[in-house]
Design a protein that fits this description.
By secondary structure, this protein is of the alpha+beta class. The chain has a single domain, classed as N-utilization substance G protein NusG, insert domain (mini-chromosome maintenance (MCM) complex, domain 2, Sandwich). The protein is built from 3 helices and 7 strands; from the N terminus they run H-E-E-E-E-E-H-E-E-H. Strands 2-1-7-6 form a 4-stranded antiparallel sheet. A 3-stranded antiparallel sheet has the order 3-4-5.
Amino acid sequence: MKLYDRLILVLLVALGFGVFFLLPQGFSGEELEVYRNGKLIASYPLMEDRVIDFADGDKINQVTIHEGQAYMSSSTCYNQHCVDHIAISKTGQSIVCLPNGLVLVIKGSEEELHGILN
């Protein structure tokens, strides 16, 4: 590799990192949709703080919505990956509790979807 090849490579890598960090990392979502075993069971606005319990027999998950973010506050699942997951707030983000069959998904507005597609 010649000096100019290395310089171009370094500039391309720097440009890639710059674009990644300067572009917005998703849009803030508007609502939380909750699915159990693939079926939508509930939907809540992210701007209203609340704590919700979802029970299915001995499988219990507690979901907290606070200051525009949602997270799994507790679960009876054995591995606790869903509880350890960071809070979600951007459109398309999700938290999955596979043992209990519960999925949290952040949804955005229709205007946002049209803005992405156009």
